[in-house]
Amino acid sequence: MRSMEVIREENEAVMERLELVMERMEGILQEETVKQPYQAYFRYLATFILKLNEIAGKIKEGTYFNQTFEELKAINHSLYEDILPEHYEMSYANPTYAAKELGQYGSLLSFLYTEVRSLIPAVYEYRLFEVTVTAELVIEIYNYFEEENEYTFKDVKRAIYYFAHDYAEDYVEHRMRETLDPTYTFAEDIIMEEDLSDLRYLYRFGDYITDNEIQIAAFLNEMPEEDVKAMADTYTEGYIRGFDVMGADLSKKEIVGIRTCIGFERMMRYAFENFKKINKKLVVYRVALDVINKKPGRKVGYYATSPNLQYEYDHRFDKGLFFDKMMKERILAVSRLGYEKYKVEAATYAGPAVLETFGEPDFAPVNKEEAIRLDEKQQKLNTELAREMNVLVSEYMKSEEISFTIIAYPLPTIGDQFKEIFAETVKVNTLPNDVYHQVQQTIIDALDQGEYVKVLGKDGNKTDIKVMLYELSDPEKETIFENCTADVNIPVGEVFTSPKLTGTCGTLHVSQVYLNGLEYQNLYLTFEDGKIKEYTCSNFEEKSENEKFIKENLMMNHETLALGEFAIGTNTTAYMMGQKYGIQRKLPILIAEKTGPHFAVGDTCYKMSEDHKLYNANGKEIVARDNEVSILRKTDMENAYYNCHTDITIPYNEIAEIAAYTKDGKRIPIIENGRFVLPGAELLNEALDK
What we know:
Layout: H1 3-30, H2 38-61, H3 69-80, H4 85-88, H5 95-102, H6 106-117, H7 120-124, H8 128-146, H9 153-180, H10 186-193, H11 211-222, H12 225-246, E1 255-259, H13 265-277, E2 281-284, H14 309-314, H15 325-341, H16 343-347, E3 349-358, H17 376-396, E4 405-410, H18 418-429, H19 433-447, E5 452-457, E6 464-468, E7 478-479, E8 482-484, E9 494-497, E10 500-515, E11 518-528, E12 531-536, H20 543-553, E13 563-569, H21 572-581, H22 589-592, E14 597-602, E15 621-622, E16 645-649, E17 655-661, E18 667-672, E19 675-676, H23 685-689
Parallel strand pairs: 1-2, 1-3, 3-4, 7-15
Antiparallel strand pairs: 5-6, 5-17, 6-10, 8-9, 9-13, 10-11, 11-12, 13-14, 14-16, 17-18, 18-19
């Protein structure tokens, strides 16, 4: 049965319930049965839900999008107005304000309001099930507050727990549907069928539309057709090349996952046509916002510029309200049911094609005591859930059979030179593979001689780290490093390996870096035998706050992470773009990792496909696919993977030395004082000299 038919059936099944809860919402606006300040809160919530229902009705009638651009813009703004930075200090979505106004119930009711806000996209997709059951939860909790002195904090929290438990299967099943079933075509229909010259189409998605999305869409509409088409070709050709590099057969796969950013629809239309020419179906899915499915710090799906990054940060661990062992097992069980339902689609899923953006305004998060967090027991359970979900997914999607590609473009908020930066980014994304491949092979030939690599910082960078390398058995047929051109990671420009952990030691220091959208100031990671032993930064005054920030957001609540990857970026053109326009720290990791050496903490790049043989173009097998942690998959799967991988780059200008050292003590310099000194790699200095 097609997904859209399933949605219609779900809507019909809840229509009577929806009418009843909307009548109750009207009643809440009139009643005086709840004392202040809770009455004001519930009336606010009821007003918001009724507004969503009104929009849903107009969408069903087909009249909503008959409105003018300015009218649609005003409605869109009104839906997100209270969480915008200028209003957030007095929003119920703000845990601090909620605690101040609503006392001990602040955290629960701030969560409830946030979950109601997650319904906005569902309304625009005309999915009424989520609207109905969430509104019913609001009424259930409202009823508690009507019964003064007959309820407790635990009663309200219990209602939230059973809501999450009872509807986990429905929420997970829908997420499976939109991420695996190509008949769920909501976003694809907008991109392929709407008049993209009429920017009213942007408001069909339901996301908050900022000047970024409007300006990007208008900018792409003004670009010559051949230029937009070339951008799409770079994106799709990189995806196809990724399968060649991985040694996987794309012809056996049918479905491509699309993760994009709103505003790039003109480029995406050409990309979709490219994929369809090679007989691929598409799943175009949005970022999950509900508490069951959302991923803290990760935007997996399509999205627009965030209305407020602090709001997202405050609510990243909302599931801490109800997450326990029983809930962990519940999510695993319903996920298995979902994969069983969509096992045919999962087996033919080829992997994601990702478009990202960069250039959002700086964001330094504030840690709020009132925000919900995972306690130590929950952190451990969450880590276990991620690990077990990874194993579950591997049963239905063989990692050695899938690939991906990622490309990034700047947003107008990058600055006044947006157009110049955009043009330069297009240039960076289309640098010649063959030239870089040859130079990178020269670097690999040198590195393959080494027992370890030494990296030293300069000019205030305190990096001093020794990275042990895999030991080759047959140098004539084997290699340690992969020669990476513009395929899975666009743009071109790195050689990378999975380091040997034993003996890898020292300090990695970065003065300022953005990782998963968060800024880290003076980040220090100290390694012993390839694992993080100590960590700190200078974001906050208190040492404990800095450590907590790193553990939650970089360490993903693990006690330690291994050095899963060591790489040397070779894209000096991208580096000079960053320097020329003063945007080095705003570059996405996708580009930044090519502008110096980078170190990834977490899993290796070959997670779950270590036994799948890979070769560089010269025919040598890339044998450094495992490390001492990942090899545990053969004996102790539970401890073989961290289920995270975060790249940290040191720019060329902060590098005093990168050199390979052989067993007999010979030093082979690759970079000295920020310049490539290895014979055969000097070509990379041309961009630096300009």
